Amino acid sequence: MTDSRYLKRTILKDKVESRLLGETRTLRIYLPPGYNEILSYPVVYCQDGEEFFNFGRIATHANRLILDEGVEPFIIVGVEVNTKIRTQEYAPFGDRFKAYTTCFAEEIIPYVEQKYPIRSDASSRILAGDSLGGSVSLHLALLYPQLFNRIISLSGAYFEASQEIIAREKDLSRLRVWMIVGLQEDAFKSDTGIHNFVELNRQCADLLRERNAEVSYREKDGKHLWGFWQNELPDALMYFLDRA
Fold first, then answer.
1. Domain that holds residue 200
2. How far apart are CA 185 and CA 175, in angstroms?
3. Backbone phi, then psi, for 97, in 5-degree steps?
4. Which tens digits make up the pLDDT trace of 218-241?
5. For the chain, N or C: smaller number of CB within 10 Å?
6. Are 158 and 135 in contact (CB under 8 A)?
């Protein structure tokens, strides 16, 4: 049974007016236990923000890590997405990819950091995503090296277009990437076809290591579902977050 302390969460909903996307984008903001505006906090930015909160239970995990594991308090920002146009925004071949990645870096980040006491160095920002959310997080780190260098990738969708972009990089020694993929993801049917996510993630990890990125890579029994990823989130978060 879940400890009731983990369920006492402060989660706010903010809205960002995006000129680049021509719409309002909703953010879910988790504030840690003992939140104090005069302090400063590391931050985890999640693609598929609604899913990370509802299915990944990331706020409950965060409370447990902070209250029981001694992890330094941190803020979570879940960036919501319209699933009907998700591929267009998250995939590098999508027609909204440039607008979304630019919005993320140039509109969402400044909004959040102006409103909340978040540290503004790249090592205090963690990008997290599942499937295409994992790959777009890596693309953001490649596009904006001054902003991002820490990535949590849950079964990232590293299709050919993404691998070609990574392969063009010479030195990625600044990157720290935590990756996991489920062994039962070898024939996953997506809106772009049937893909072997195990092989795609192995190839991506190799590309990153060849360019001197720090990669923590693992394969486990699991399917391309939140039921698998949810249980892996605590380890992923603890990989990047310091003990208080």
1. 4-240
2. 25
3. -60, -50
4. 999 999 999 999 999 999 999 999
5. N
6. yes
